[in-house]
Write a structure and sequence with these properties.
The chain is mainly α. The protein is about 60% helix and about 0% strand.
Length: about 190
């Protein structure tokens, strides 16, 4: 019967695992933690985070924080922990909803990866998209309603742009992912006599 029931401490520890990993990742980045750590200390924080990621389920790891609504993948990307981010993307049991979770500003981890210049992480996320809507969602008005593709264009990330276009084409089953825009241009051109 002990195996089924958890103690209050075990339940509390498991419940806060996402926040534990977020705290460890934050400590690897001086700008977020506000303190200077040696490279050895940052490596130790990364090892502890990796251990927790391997130990716990995606359901526990991807719980968003209470302040910004970011999940652990947002933090792995924003702290430039590329290997940890890719481990999270490929974690068994992770859902596309968790991978494309929007924070309070409308940013998905894909937006975060593009903003931070993490093209390898962005490409891995793009390949995990299960709907074209996940690739075409916009940030909130405060952030100029940018889609991931628009952000990639702004940041001059051609590999990411091509991946987004190809994945949207794959998901829609359409030869031309910009079919509406192309049709509009054709109608506009014909009405102008071009």
């Amino acid at each position: 019967m002990n195996a089924i029931w958890k103690t209050k401490e075990e339940f509390k520890k498991e419940e806060a695992v996402s926040q534990q990993v977020i705290n460890l990742l934050t400590e690897t980045d001086e700008t977020l933690s506000g303190s200077k750590h040696t490279e050895e200390e940052r490596q130790e924080y990364r090892k502890k985070a990796t251990k927790l990621i391997k130990q716990y389920s995606a359901e526990k790891l991807f719980e968003p924080d209470e302040t910004l609504g970011k999940n652990v993948l947002h933090y792995a990307i924003s702290t430039h922990n590329t290997i940890i981010a890719i481990d999270l993307i490929n974690k068994a049991g992770v859902t596309s909803e968790q991978l494309f979770h929007r924070d309070t500003h409308g940013y998905t981890p894909l937006h975060e990866a593009i903003q931070n210049g993490e093209d390898i992480v962005a490409i891995n996320l793009i390949r995990k998209a299960t709907t074209s809507g996940q690739l075409q969602c916009e940030t909130h008005v405060y952030y100029n309603h940018k889609t991931a593709k628009q952000m990639a264009e702004d940041n001059r990330m051609p590999r990411v742009i091509v991946e987004i276009e190809e994945r949207i084409k794959d998901l829609s089953g359409d030869e031309n992912p910009n079919r509406f825009q192309s049709r509009y241009r054709t109608n506009q051109q014909s009405s102008l006599g071009i």
